[in-house]
Structures are given as structure tokens and as C-alpha cells.
Amino acid sequence: MTNDTNVTWHEHRVSREDRERYNGHRGCVIWFTGLSGSGKSTIANVLDHMLAERGVKAAVLDGDNVRHGLNASPGMLRDTHGDEFAERFGLGFTAIDREENIRRIGAVAQLFCETGTIALTAFISPYRLDRDRVRRTMPEGDFIEVFVDTPLEICEARDPKGLYKKARAGEIKHFTGIDDPYEAPESPELVVRAGERTPEALASEVIDYLVSRAILPVTNS
Hints:
The protein has 221 residues and is of the alpha/beta class. Helix 2 (40-53) packs across helix 10 and helix 6 packs parallel to helix 7 (128-136). The termini are far apart. Strands 2-3-1-4-5 form a 5-stranded parallel sheet, sandwiched between helices. The chain has helices spanning 16-23, 40-53, 63-66, 74-81, 83-89, 95-114, 128-136, 152-158, 163-168, 199-212; strands at 28-33, 58-62, 118-122, 143-148, 190-192. It has a domain at 23-59 and 103-212: Rossmann fold, CATH 3.40.50.300. 44% of the residues lie in helices and 11% in strands. The protein is built from 10 helices and 5 strands.
């Protein structure tokens, strides 16, 4: 049994405040949530590009990319790590696996935030409780929930990966919006409607919000 008393937090010699001063902006976590196909990853990547053009330090944590490494499925881990490891640490799409997926990525996003970086996360993160747990692990104001409010019928019509079609055919189980629920945020910091505006316009909305919160400096451009 692990003795948790042997695990201690080490303070860094370079403080978060110092890093933010060097960067010229504050760190935060921008948590995009919404249905599959809602436009989360597209908006996050457009926003990342816009921030890079402003000289802002940012990083995108995308749901699919993270599930290729940190939160890989048992099937992906089995060949390289063996059956026992894969079943113990691999994550599927059950409610408990989704909870752990969000817990892990929340911890990673917080580490980015504490270096003065803006972490952009793009995950369905369907359960309100899981998102609120991540929020509670961070200082007030660090967690910015952005609800990408795209109707199911638009997401399903887009279906860029063919996932809705497979879910409707019963080939994918526990698919959010079909046989698993999506719990929309009750009080997100920002709601963007990806069925009505371009990703560039929506990313600009997020930047305007960050400027209004003094996370990003006002520019003259």
C-alpha cells in the first residue's frame, strides 16, 4: 500500500506570477465542451493560431489526441504494455472511464495554467459533475468554461468521423447524444454558437472575453 505521506508538493523557484510577467499575459484553462461534431477542436485550433499571432503562449489539448497517449484505450495499450496493464490503466467510454479521462486532463491543463500558459481543452466532457470537479481544483477565475452550443441535428449532419451513423446502427455504445446523455453547462463563462458563425468569429469572441478579464492585454491592432 502506498504511503501518501511520502508525497509532498514542491514549490518552484520561478513563481507563476513571474512566468506570467515574462509572458505578458495570464495563464488560464479554456475548457471547450459540447457534442461530438459541435466544432470544439476547430475553434480551439483557430484560437490557438490567433493567440500565437499575438505572441501568446498557448497549448491545445484535444480529446482525440490525448486518447492516443495519456488516456489511451485498453485496445491501444495491449500490444505495447500487455493485457493486465491495459485493462487496469486504459480508458474506454463508460461513465467511470469518462470521469477519469476528465480528471487526468484537468490535472494536465492546470499544470499548463500554472506555467502562465493558456491551456485550450477540447473534450466532449458530457457530465456536469466532472467539469465542476475540475473547476474546483483550480483557483477562482482560472477555469473558463466555453459551451459550444451546436444542436444535435447539425452535429449529426456534419458527422465528420461517421460516428453518429455508427452509433445509430448500434456499432458504437455509450455515444454521447445518442445512448449516453450530454449535460449542458448551467452557468458557463461563455456560450458560442458554432451552427451560426464561423470558427474565426467564435475564436474572436473568446479573445474579446479574455481581454475583458485582463487575461490578455489590450492591443492597438
